[in-house]
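Minutes, project check-in
Item: structure for the 138-residue chain
Input as provided by the requester:
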Amino acid sequence: MYKAITQSQIFVLDQDEALDFYVNKLGLELHTDQDLGFMRWLTVNVPGDRGRQILLEKPGPPAMNEAMAAQVRDMVTKGAMGGWLCISTDDAHKTYETLKARGVELTDEPTERPYGVDFGIRDPFGNAIRIGQMNTPA
């Protein structure tokens, strides 16, 4: 019935700052940056994986009115929106050191877990991101 999840979304407060963070610091690539008139459609993806996009959406029209957008912006700022991403890597320790050198906010160090090694970071808006080196399924 379904083939794949092709797009997901997180709220950001400044799309230019988000683009800089997700491309230049995190290492994702720009997929689409298009002015639709009523909103800016800004997506990024893992390099080489153009089948899955992350929409970096600024709270506002057409999805919500200004009053609701103000509430969402407040919640994003507090880190309370629940927006988060999980990104896999071949080497969690190396990726951690690379992001640390780029000044990314790290929330914890690489830790051995039953499913692999992972660590957390936060984007400039409070969204949580987990980066993991997953075990190969048996």
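Outcome recorded: The helical segments are 15-25, 66-77, 92-101.
No further action items on this chain.
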